[in-house]
Design brief:
about 80% helix, single chain, globular, mainly alpha
Length: about 250
């Protein structure tokens, strides 16, 4: 269902583009926005294909939806089993805890990829039907960055849930980190001290480097993958050491 929703979102957003394409009034309106507002919400020249998708899809809406999916799901994978009282049945099987967590994490990744795939299909169809001028390399990079960003915070939610058994804490902490990471990346151009810590934000490495325009960046993507791996490893260790009372 998430894939269908993301597909529909993409079709709706791209379908609106012909109504504003080349509109000089919107270009002038963009120049009147305060710099803080433009930086926070990624508002750019909406009359171009890249500017429109950057502002309306990739600055906040699509990443937010995929992060919500990943965080809700990640927090439920282990902690949800404990809340429902089914973790004892799960762990009664002759498999290690690390395998249980890794297989659940793999399911999370597949789910996020499928949802991102729905977004991708909808965007490609919308771009082709509306005549939006946009390179497929940049679009692919932005989609991959968005998926990786979502997986980072989904992994955080899974790890906290595995370490504590508290689903609410898992989801809340992951959401809080996602919001903080977004603000650090979005406001760094206006707040000097944030520039120093901006590289600590996964949001910066995913979408703060503008993959829609600049394309693939192996260094930034490697950082996202490395963070995900490190957080996942912490989850494996914490879950393996916990007393589940089973």
């Amino acid at each position: 269902m998430w894939a269908v929703g993301m597909f529909t979102l993409a079709l709706v957003m791209t379908g609106l583009y012909p109504t504003i394409r080349g509109n000089p009034q919107l270009a002038k309106l963009h120049d009147t926005y305060p710099e803080a507002l433009r930086s926070l919400f990624g508002i750019t020249d909406l009359t171009t294909g890249i500017g429109y998708l950057r502002a309306e899809v990739f600055s906040l809406v699509a990443p937010l939806l995929l992060i919500v999916l990943a965080v809700l799901w990640g927090g439920d994978l282990i902690a949800g089993e404990e809340d429902r009282g089914t973790v004892d049945i799960l762990m009664a099987n002759p498999i290690s805890r690390s395998r249980v967590l890794l297989e659940k994490w793999a399911a999370l990744v597949v789910g996020v990829v499928i949802a991102a795939g729905g977004l991708a299909i909808g965007l490609v169809i919308g771009i082709l039907t509306t005549g939006m001028h946009l390179g497929m390399a940049g679009l692919s990079a932005a989609l991959l960055a968005t998926a990786l960003l979502s997986i980072v915070f989904g992994t955080v939610s899974l790890t906290v849930g595995a370490a504590t058994g508290n689903r609410a804490l898992a989801r809340g902490s992951a959401v809080a980190l996602a919001v903080i990471a977004y603000l650090i990346s979005a406001l760094a151009d206006m707040v000097d001290w944030l520039k120093e810590i901006r590289p600590l934000s996964p949001w910066y490495h995913a979408l703060g480097v503008d993959p829609l325009a600049s394309g693939f960046s192996l260094v930034h993507f490697a950082v996202l993958i490395g963070v995900t791996g490190a957080v996942g490893l912490l989850g494996v260790v914490a879950f393996d050491r916990r007393d589940l009372a089973v």
